[in-house]
Design a protein that fits this description.
Number of strands: 10
Length: 370
């Protein structure tokens, strides 16, 4: 029924809304007691408070749940597809990790320059796959007018298998550390005997070349190991021992420092692996940029190699992004990790340009270009 003026002057005078309505009801029900009125008001207030609390709690739960979902999605990331064909990479700006270190003139003190540029190549398959006129070493010689010695061993690695020499695993002799030790000691008997037992003649060919090298005349050392260490599951580094020769960067760092201490006048260029794929035991291929088989992806090895080279103060050439990469590898590789003639030509162009145009010497007060 409609409210009258008398109603508004009654128990609910001066109030509005829900409270006015209840007071109007109380006024119209003469038998309701004061206690009953209080109980109705109490239940009404309690109901209102419960609803507000529930709404607030639900809002907090929803916000927290949404935030957790977004965080989980962000951590998971988006899987990179190896089969993307509609991506235009022509506008991508790729900055290589090259670091060309000029020669400190103090290292050339008392060294006699014979006027002939002599280059020694150490490493594995990029050099050893082809020792002929179309090989990487021969192409470097043609492009630099230098005398080039190829002392690389097939499928060898920058790291050693064992921290100290194990006679039960003689192939460690072909790895970077032990090859350099042969030169430092001018002793080739053991490695010659081991190479002679190998069915692949390229091992003995490399040893025969090693015996002819006069280290006092070597001006430039080029070191290139492909993705072998990564594919073998060799640790990229040992944080507790940066000179651990069983780790990829430990083998590099230790051997580079040995070279510098023995022949300080030699310019050293480390050429990084190019892009490559990982092949599992079943022959299935995986993208080296995204495949981690336990010690990091292939480009993780690249970053660690750059760090090791910089620690030693030697030049590093980034072939992973700057020479043969994920976009062009099909044109330059015969399989998941070996190069064709065009690939070797591209690698030779890269190092030859630096040797021909970017060598320099520095001293405490003067910098000059050769």
């Amino acid at each position: 029924m409609p409210y009258s003026a008398a109603d508004q002057q009654g128990p609910g005078a001066g109030c509005t809304g829900r409270t006015n309505f209840h007071r109007h009801i109380f006024a119209c029900v003469p038998n309701i007691t004061v206690n009953e009125k209080g109980m109705v008001n109490f239940m009404n207030r309690k109901k209102t408070k419960i609803n507000l609390h529930v709404i607030l709690i639900l809002a907090i739960v929803l916000i927290a749940g949404f935030s957790a979902y977004r965080l989980i999605r962000w951590n998971k990331g988006t899987r990179l597809s190896d089969n993307e064909t509609d991506v235009d990479t022509s506008q991508f700006d790729i900055e290589t990790l090259d670091m060309i270190i000029p020669m400190d003139s103090s290292r050339l003190k008392d060294h006699i320059d014979d006027g002939v540029t002599t280059i020694l190549c150490l490493g594995n398959n990029p050099f050893s796959d082809d020792r002929g006129e179309s090989g990487l070493a021969a192409r470097i010689a043609q492009k630099t007018n230098a005398v080039v010695y190829d002392c690389s061993f097939p499928d060898s690695s920058a790291a050693c298998k064992y921290p100290v020499y194990n006679p039960e695993y003689t192939r460690d002799h072909f790895n970077f550390y032990y090859v350099v030790e042969c030169f430092r000691n001018n002793e080739f008997t053991a490695i010659n005997s081991i190479a002679n037992d190998e069915p692949d003649p390229r091992y003995l060919e490399a040893v025969d070349v090693m015996k002819t090298v006069d280290m006092s005349k070597v001006d430039i050392l080029i070191v290139m190991y492909d993705s072998t260490d990564y594919n073998m599951g060799t640790p990229s580094d040992n944080p507790d021992n940066p000179h651990d020769v069983t780790a990829f960067t430990g083998g590099l760092r230790t051997t580079l420092e040995n070279i510098q201490s023995t022949w300080p006048y030699i310019r050293i260029f480390v050429m990084s692996p190019t892009y490559a794929q990982y092949m599992d035991e079943d022959g299935k291929l995986y993208n080296g940029t995204t495949m981690d088989i336990g010690n990091g992806t292939l480009n993780h090895y690249l970053v660690k190699e750059v760090d090791a080279a910089m620690d030693c103060g030697v030049s590093i050439i980034d072939n992973y992004f700057g020479t043969i990469n994920e976009d062009n590898y099909r044109e330059y590789m015969t399989d998941h990790m070996h190069y064709n003639e065009k690939g070797r030509e591209k690698l030779a162009d890269r190092i030859a340009d630096i040797i021909n145009n970017h060598l320099g010497t520095v001293s405490s007060s003067v910098s000059q270009t050769d």
